[in-house]
Structures are given as C-alpha cells and as structure tokens.
Amino acid sequence: MQYKGYTLPHKFFADFVAFASVIVEVKAQEGIADIQYSQLLNYLRVSRCKVGLVINFGEDSLKIKRVVL
Question: Which pTM does this prediction carry?
Fold first, then answer.
C-alpha cells in the first residue's frame, strides 16, 4: 500500500466499505475515544475515500458519527 510516496509495511482492514466511497467503522464500547476517530481518518487518507462513519452499538442508544476528510 502506498501513502504519500511511501510503501506502508502493513494493510488496514476497515469493517465495511459502502458504495466504494464510505468507510464504516463499527464499535461496541461505551463512548468513542479520539483514537477511534484518528483510526478512521487514517483509513480515509489511505483509501482516498472522503466520508467515514463510526457506528457505536455499545451505549444505551445507537450512536453514529460522520467523519469527512
């Protein structure tokens, strides 16, 4: 995988890629930490997708956060 001219030694694995342009990251934990958003932003940069969703099933109600690169 290439990023800004560098070969990355590992691959990323998004939970879902919808319509070949939206990355969906699914979580089942209480609250979403900043590290989760950073991970999604990294996925967006590497894949060149523009939109990502963090979906969290771990709280009392479903939480969805849209992230745009």
Answer: 0.67
Report the alpha-carbon distance of residue 10 to residue 63 in Å, rounded. 30
End-to-end CA distance of the chain: 19
Residue 52 burial by Cβ neighbours in a 10 Å radius (0-12, 13-18, 19+): buried
Residue 35 CB partners (closer than 8 Å, separation 6+): none
Residues 6+ apart with CB under 8 A from 38: none
Instruction: Give me the residue label for tokens 């900043």.
Output: 34
The CA-atom distances, in angstroms, between 25 and each of 5, 7, 22, 69 are 26, 24, 10, 15
Distance CA(61)–CA(58), nearest Å, equals: 8
- Residue 45 — pLDDT band, cuts 50, 70, 90? confident
